[in-house]
Amino acid sequence: MSAPSPASAVQSALARDKLGTLSLLHFSLTAATPLTVIAGGVVVMFAVAGQIGIPLGYVIIAVSLWLFSVGYTAMARHIANAGAMYAFVARGLGRVPGVAAAWVAATSYCALQASLYGLLGFTAQGLIARAGLDLPWWVWALVAWALVGLLGTRAVDINAKVLAVLLTVEVAVILMFSASNFANAADGLSFGAFAPTALSGEAAGAVLALAVIGFIGFESPTVYGEEARDRKRTVARATLATIGVLAFVYIASSWSIITAVGDDQVVAAATGDLDLMFTLAGEQLGSAWVTIGQVLLLTSVTAAALSFHNTTARYLFALGREQVLFTWLGRTSVRTCAPVAASVTQTVAGGLVLVLWAVLELDPVVHLFYYLGTASGIGLIALILTCAVAVLVYFARDRRDESAWSARIAPVLAVLAMAGVLYLSVLHFHTLLGVEKGSLLPKLVPIVFAALALLGAAWGLFLKRARPEVYAGIGHGAKAPLVQAAERAAVPVGAAGER
Q1: How far apart are CA 395 and CA 191, in angstroms?
Q2: Does the residue 325 lie in any domain?
Q3: Contacts for 299 with CB less than 8 Å, ≥ 6 apart
Q4: Is residue 96, in this structure, part of any structural domain at all?
Q5: Which part of the chain is the Amino acid permease/ SLC12A domain (predicted)?
Q6: Of 168, 178, 216, which Cα lies nearest the Cα of 55?
Q7: Contact 338/309 with Cβ under 8 angstroms?
Q8: How does pLDDT run across 274-308, given as a tens digit for each residue?
Q9: C-alpha closest to that of 54 among 186, 224, 192
Q10: Of 468, 470, 106, which Cα lies nearest the Cα of 324?
Q11: Which distant-in-sequence residues (6+ apart) come within 8 Å of 154 by Cβ?
């Protein structure tokens, strides 16, 4: 195989040394959409669970994800791949499971990003209608879609700067609202929300699933490992910092709502007013803050859509570069090194979803944001569990000078914790969706993801038989062309890269 030309090499490489710890933190925190989680997710959790143990649920999930991140970031010190969890599964459990994980990951992230346009369009429609311009939700969703698509083709550090500004304002307002809630306590400061009995029964599974979805994005620093400065440190720092910041914000804000309304009244208040967060802000700080909060909700969702767009594009780029999918997905801009082809593909996919929902006149909040977003969350929980198992197996073969805690103990605990979360989430998925037990939708979502995994595995087996050189490079990222060349030449991989 001849050496690639300089131009082609540039067109298949991401930017190097562009992102520090703070930039990675901006991507991961904005993907989690903290204001959306608090203003919408937390209030919904009170209503769905009928219990006050939401802060306890966030504590449980934060600890579980922290355990996962210990081994996850340790593995990231040895593997840099824009495909992140796909590559980790491929290197830990094998190439066929890796391709299966890739199909689930790409679909889940793409669906999660597209779901955000439903909430975004609905929120923008309400805000702008007050100014006298009343247009359908999908018009504003398409405006945001075009903006995100444009920024997705720009240099990665420009995206980080945009997200930094939006995130700073968003978190500042969340903290201000929470402080106001604590200052206006209904019955004083109560710790009842942290009692073991505060979260139990079928509702516990729904709460834990929603809590995990609220943290989705914490894993994204590894996606940018190839573009990070000193990735062995920055990726781990950004991942752990994301979990810590989100845990503090979610626990404090959900606890503050309970404090402001009262232990005995918060469930009824949330059930009767899904805008409870903004209602409290209006009562305590003035009606102007309701509008400010809703505007920031709009920018929060837009920022999250941009962050997930970048994550999805890099998964597609990784699969294209390794020739697991269409090779043109692995092309990057000569000038900015952004994964332009994968970014445009993700933009087209999101646009098709918007057109479909608009033509079928489906509800943007219930059917797009909530159903599609929650369904994709189930896929990502399954992906995190699979990756946790991969980390455990990877270090079981070779600890690679990592501590016993990072390579053995934490990964085992993470597998147990995430297995429990996935089991409860699937078992009580009907509660999460607000439909009857035995309904088709809660059964259909796990079946769809299982089918995707099987199709991905089948494709991996096809590559093994029909394109062994491509199969050999699966999970090797930038080293894949070298591994593939060695496979074609039928020589030991050696310096070309680790099998």
Answers
A1: 40
A2: yes
A3: 166, 169, 170
A4: yes
A5: 42-429
A6: 178
A7: no
A8: 788 888 989 999 888 888 888 888 888 888 888 88
A9: 192
A10: 470
A11: 336, 338
Domain count, the chain: 1
CATH of the domain at 117: 1.20.1740.10
Give the C-alpha separation, 397 to 499, whole Å. Answer: 13
As given in the structure block, the two tokens for residue 224 are 């940018």
Q: State mean pLDDT over 146-168.
A: 73
pLDDT digits (tens, 9 = 90+) for 202-234: 778 778 888 888 898 888 888 777 666 766 778
Q: What are phi and psi of 228, to 5 degrees?
A: -90, 155
Tokens of 338: 């952004």
Q: What is the mean pLDDT of the chain?
A: 84
The domain of 130 spans: 6-466
In this structure, the number of other CB atoms found within 10 A of the CB of residue 206 comes to: 26
Query: Dmax of the chain from CA atoms?
Result: 75
Q: Compute the C-alpha angle 406/92/9, nearest 5°.
A: 105
Tokens standing for residue 67: 């355990």
Q: Are 49 and 311 in contact (CB under 8 A)?
A: no
Answer yes or no: is 154 within a domain. Answer: yes
Is residue 105 assigned to a domain? Answer: yes
Name the nearest CA neighbour of 334 among 2, 5, 13, 4.
13
d(CA 23, CA 164): 8
Burial group, residue 159, by CB count within 10 angstroms (0-12, 13-18, 19+): buried
The residue count for the chain: 499
Q: What is the DSSP string of 111-126?
A: HHHHHHHHHHHHHHHH
Q: Over the stretch 321-332, which tens digit does the pLDDT of each residue have?
A: 888 888 888 787
Burial tier of 397 (Cβ tally within 10 Å: 0-12, 13-18, 19+): exposed
